Amino acid sequence: MPATAAPPRPRGLDALRAPIEDDLATFRRYFRDAMRSRVRMLDLVTQFTLRRKGKEIRPTLVLLTARLCGDVTERSYRAAALVELLHTATLVHDDVVDEAERRRGAFSINAVWKNKVAVLFGDFLLSRGLLLALDNGDYDLLQLVSDAVRRMSEGELLQIEKARRLDIDEPTYFRIIGDKTGSLIAACMACGAASAGADEAAVQQARAIGEKLGLAFQIRDDLFDYEAVDVGKPLGLDLQERKLTLPLIAALDRADPAERRRVMALVRKRRDAPAVHRFVKAQGGLDYARQEMERLTDEVQEGLLAFPPSEARDALVGLAAYVVARRI
User: What are the chain's domains?
Assistant: First the structure.
């Protein structure tokens, strides 16, 4: 079907979720049931986790894509729960690796129960996700999500390697964020399409759109490091961890050799983040990153317009706009 003009874009996640409000309520029951345990400590940690419910962007993507490609089915709810279980497990493990004491404005699990409990709880969530798929024969969904988790691990390790060497370039940056963030967003949309009975071509089309949406999402996160807004992490944290993200990479590419050496010395020694921020802004690194983010968002929206018109399509187009406009 030929592309048509983009529909009006809703503001905020509540409006975007309107087509699947009832579906999300059903998903939450699946998610809670999948986390049940007869071990009291596990149950305590689970209740603590459920009280800190995030934006649910990933299950939202699964369910909206299912509606984009057909209807939400029992497999769609399981796919959304599978994605959220594995995503939550990676967040718990990330907090242990990063020695983070807070998550979404509250204490992290490792801060409350220490690392051993946090690691085991993450393992429990991972196993529950695997069993949810295996017990129902959802092998295609499990393969899509498992491949995303593999890529997420590889992306994190590659970023650690590059932070030590400080030799990252733009193609490597996009490889890292494609693995770290794009892979799971891609899996969400691919799982949503597959759960609705879409053919392989539509599943792969949804996956490709999700990958680009994930890239735009991560660039927006990286831009937060240069903005004086409260997003749950200290300003300049990426620089403190020697993570070279797109704004800095683009600025370094445009600088003369002497200036590049001066700034890299600051990054290497984790010193004077404000000076690095001024350099990035002066060299146009922020503008370049925003342009790349907007280019990817435009491609996401163009890809969505290849699907038949529907409330779900309108919501996904709006969600792409939300990703680049969000303040947290």
Answer: 13-325 (1.10.600.10)
